[in-house]
Design brief:
There is one protein chain. Helix content is about 15%, strand content about 40%. The protein is α+β, with helices and mostly antiparallel strands and about 350 residues long. The strands form five sheets. Strands 8, 9, 10, 11, 12 and 13 form a six-stranded antiparallel beta sheet that branches. A five-stranded antiparallel beta sheet has the order 15-14-18-19-21.
């Protein structure tokens, strides 16, 4: 796609109201999930979102006292869209709070585990913190951990310079399996000085390059080799499993619209990014004391239910469409940049 298309962004205007009383709602948070694009509704319930890039996006509307609403929409380039959204009020039942030392210690243990699994264990995670952990509730039984949040998680990432509101829908961990889904909204932090801003800019580039989004964008743009990716197919994770070179052109098929493509392969996809070495924390995360690397970043992908859709921004539309292992799995919320982020010298739009 030519470099000017991604820049031909769209605008969304809309109005929010109470589903029962039909009165306009002021102060609701309206945002494009995983992006910096967001706004609050005005006194008459109206809102405007500008600079929305082409692709499949999720519009999320949240307001205290109302059930969150999300709308999946395909945005074409240079369009103006209008929506009206009615929110249904909700009753929040306050749980009885029982405080004792044993329960407090157990909650703290679960919080530490959740934080490690959710934010990750990369160098960036050391500078990333959940500011309101008290909104979290945990259930743990037979080695399974699940988490819910009564309010959006407020996450401050001092490594990349972002604050996130994360609307947690689901979190589940058991054995080697971790599943989480939610809607993050990004805002940029204000740097203390120019050197902190430069550090954030450098860290954002490092976080983007070699990421799952970078890989999928390079597939879409047919630049995987030039971008530093090598792709092989495996039949299993056994070390003796043969590796076959994959032609990147065989991984994508035309999607239902020009802004979507079908990501398809069988077996296991091995993705090696040769332009960066592994984070120094990766060895510990692997829990393999005899691990001899660091080496190039190596990841693996499996399709959960057959071919799945990806959009123009390198987003897997179904949050559970692909399971990732290796380096893609190592990098979690502490390494996420907004979906519209591109490095300054990026020219493969």
């Amino acid at each position: 796609m030519s470099s000017d298309v991604y820049g031909q962004s769209s605008t969304l205007i809309g109005r929010l109201s109470d589903a029962e009383t039909l009165r306009p709602l002021q102060g609701a948070h309206v945002f494009i999930a995983s992006s910096l694009i967001g706004s609050a509704s005005h006194e008459d319930g109206s809102f405007v979102l500008n600079e929305i890039p082409p692709g499949a996006h999720r519009i999320v509307v949240t307001m205290l006292g109302y059930e969150p609403t999300s709308i999946d929409t395909l945005f074409r380039k240079d369009h103006r869209y209008e929506i009206d959204v009615s929110l249904h009020s909700t009753t929040v039942e306050l749980e009885e709070v029982v405080v004792n030392a044993r329960l407090a210690r157990r909650w703290q243990r679960r919080l530490r585990k959740f934080t490690r699994l959710f934010l990750g264990e990369t160098i960036n995670s050391d500078s990333t913190h959940i500011l309101n952990p008290e909104v979290l509730s945990f259930k743990s039984r037979l080695g399974k951990l699940s988490a819910t949040a009564s309010e959006p998680l407020i996450i401050e990432n001092r490594a990349l310079g972002y604050r996130l509101q994360y609307y947690l829908k689901e979190f589940f961990h058991f054995g080697h399996t971790i599943k989480y889904d939610g809607e993050p909204s990004f805002t940029e932090l204000i740097p203390a000085d120019s050197s902190e801003m430069e550090r954030w800019q450098t860290n954002r580039e490092v976080a983007f390059y070699g990421s799952e989004r970078h890989f999928l964008l390079s597939l879409i743009n047919q630049t995987t080799q030039a971008e530093g990716f090598e792709i092989h197919r495996l039949f299993s994770f056994e070390s003796s499993s043969p590796r076959f070179n994959m032609d990147p052109l065989d991984l994508l098929e035309l999607g239902p619209t020009p802004l979507e493509q079908i990501f398809t392969f069988s077996g296991i996809l091995e993705v090696t990014y040769s332009e960066e070495l592994e984070d120094e924390n990766f060895k510990d995360w692997q829990r393999q004391p005899n691990w001899q690397r660091p080496g190039p970043q190596r990841s693996f992908m499996e399709l959960n239910s057959g071919p799945t859709l990806i959009d123009e921004s390198g987003e897997v539309i179904d949050p559970y469409g692909v399971t990732v292992y290796g380096y893609f799995a190592f990098e979690r919320m502490a390494d996420k940049v907004p979906k519209e982020y591109r490095p300054p010298n990026w020219n493969h739009h």
